[in-house]
Each structure stands twice: as structure tokens, then as C-alpha cells.
Amino acid sequence: MKRLDSPHLRSLLNRPRDSHKYDFGRVLVIGGSLPMVGAPVLAGKAALRSGAGVVELCVPDCVAAVAAGFDPCLITHGLPSEGSGSFSPEGLQAMRALASRADVIVLGPGIGRSPELAAIVRGLWRDMPQPMVVDADALHALSGVDAATLAEHAGPRILTPHAGEMQRLLGVASGAGKRDRAALEQAATIFARDTASTLVLKGADTLITEGGLPTHNASGNPGLATAGSGDVLSGVIAALLAQKLPPAEAARLGVWAHGLAGDAAAAVLGELSLTANDVIEFLPGVWQKLRQEGDAGRPA
Question: Which of 25, 54, 97, 141 could share a disulfide with 118, CB 3.0–4.6 Å?
Fold first, then answer.
């Protein structure tokens, strides 16, 4: 698939000399809990490695110090937490204030599951006008909500479910996707159309659709089937949105770059040993290769 024919992508790969960090967008990752403090960090690190100018984490205060210790380039905000180690509803006003400053929101990595968290997720989905990448437990929070209600959102939405999460969103029996991937993809395409969203159905040959003609991704390998890989993908897509790529283009390029970084990592480390952190470490090579290919195609 040709990747360098987009004016948005050409702008992304060739920054003006007088650039400022806020020219490349502020990404806010909302997630984390006591058992899963690393998930929002992975998304944030991937967003930084994919060009976002500023990346902030919004996590429960009980894990904020740990999250902040992973990478000094991430700005970390700790909001009130409950005894379970998840967000407390008391912090919702502060969370919305942080979200209102962002250019792009990543919602869900490691956020946990409870009726209170589901209400927070659904409210943010409905109300925030910024582009939003929704993954992990935020997808679980949206399951059970009918498509017509989900279509009532204030801004662009990208959902990134794997097969099991897609089944929950659709309300179908668990395991059906493994038996009939084609049927699941068809249902996912209709779901994207009915919810006015972009949908990334992860798996071998990941599907990307806005409800019209779907496309499939060819990069990637089984080594990407590892904990945290989806969080990394959410961060990559969010960074591209922050740099003004349209949602469908950000989704397609993000999935492709994520897979290519996984391929590069597997070539060095092997599929068996691949981790989500490895994918992040190989992202710079992907963007550099794209830049070099673009430069080679320009007249001297």
C-alpha cells in the first residue's frame, strides 16, 4: 500500500525549522489502575515515539508516582482513587478539565471495570469534542450500549477492539469471531457505520473501516500477540491524530507502522521474545524509513 501520497503525511514527516511542541498536539491518556499501571505508560511512550508534541497521563493518584517513574518525558496527573486502585468519581471534574485541554484523548488502557468507571467512560465518549481513541476496558464499558446511543458523540471516535471485545460490543457469543472472522468483520463494518466511528478490528490482517469499504493491514507478525501491544497501537494512532491526520488515515497508518515496528523487532529479537516495549523501541526506525523514502522521491 502506498503511504507517501498524502499531504497530511508529508507534512508530518517534514517539520518546519521553527516548530513548537504544541504544533504537534497534546495527547492525554486516561487509564491505569493498581494492577495495570503500565498500560497508560505504554500508550504514552508510543505517542511520544510517534511524534506527539506533549503527552500527559491521567491516572489514579495511588499509582501516579509509579507511572511518572517510567519516563520523565511524560507529564503525569494523579486523580482521586478508590480502595480498589481505580479512579474515583470524585475526580471526574478534574478529569474533564484535563481532557478539555487535550487535542486527542486515549481512553481505556488499564482503567479497570466497575459501574462507576463505565459511567465515566460513557460520559467522556458522549461529551468530549476531541478525537478519541478507545481501547481495552473502555470498550468493555461501552458494551451493552446500543449503536444509536453510541452514535451520539461530540467528536471523532476510533475504537480498537480485538475479536473478543468486538463480540461484546455486538452482544454476540464469545468465540464466534474465531469461527467466522468474515462474519465478524462484516458486523464490525456495520457497527462502525451505525456509530459514526472508525473501527480497527485487531488480529491477523487487521481490519480498518469507517463503515464503508474496509481495508486490511498486511504488516505485523504473531509476536505482537503480547500484553500491552494494543496500548502501544492506541498511542501511535493518537499521535497521528494529534498531528492532524484524519481519523481513517491515522488508523490505517498507525496500524501499519505498529505492525512494521513489530516486524523489525521480531527480525532482531524473534517473535517468541517480543514485548510491547520492543515495539516502541523500533518505532523510530519506521518513521525514519518513511522519511527517507519520501526524500528519495523528491526532485533534487
Answer: 141
Long-range contacts, stretch 162-167, CB < 8 angstroms, 24+ apart: 162/201, 162/202, 162/203, 162/230, 163/201, 163/202, 163/203, 165/139, 165/140, 166/191, 166/201
CA terminus-to-terminus distance, the chain? 25
Q: Domains in the chain, ordered, with CATH?
A: 23-293 (3.40.1190.20)
- How much is the pTM? 0.95
Instruction: Give the position of cell 460513557.
Output: 122
Is residue 291 classed exposed, middle or buried when 0-12, 13-18 and 19+ CB atoms within 10 A define those classes? middle
Q: Give the model confidence (pLDDT) of 231-252 as tens digits.
A: 999 999 999 999 999 999 999 9
- Say what percent of the chain tops pLDDT 90: 88
Q: Residue 298's pLDDT is what?
A: 41
